[in-house]
Amino acid sequence: MRILKASVATLALLAVCAGVVLAAEAAPRKSSAPATQEVAVFSVPMLMEGTVLKDLVKAVADKPGILSAQADSAKSTLSVTFETKKTKPDRILKALNSVSKDAKLVAVAPADARAAGKHDCGKCPLAKSCPGTKK
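Above: the chain sequence. Below: its structure as tokens.
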């Protein structure tokens, strides 16, 4: 009887340990990899003049890795969210310079994870015809 109790206790202990190990392996792990999305801010003189904004958005809309672009008329800046594995700020600047020769890169920062997934296409002048818009 003593052997039976010891065997049951050992099996119970093994079952509990196996459950703990399996639960630990199944737990999602946080990645320490750097963010793959960044926001590049460009200073664009006369951003709101004529069709400059529309032309700038059109210049970057079909480029690989561009996720969104947002203008700040008060600061005369254009913030472009992009995937770092697909494009770089200097490539975006080159596309912007095809419209506005005076456009300059001001800053680059990691994209806010919550905002990166949200595209505020309703404010974009190309919202209806953008190739990046999912219908």
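Residues 25 and 127 are 44 Å apart (CA to CA).
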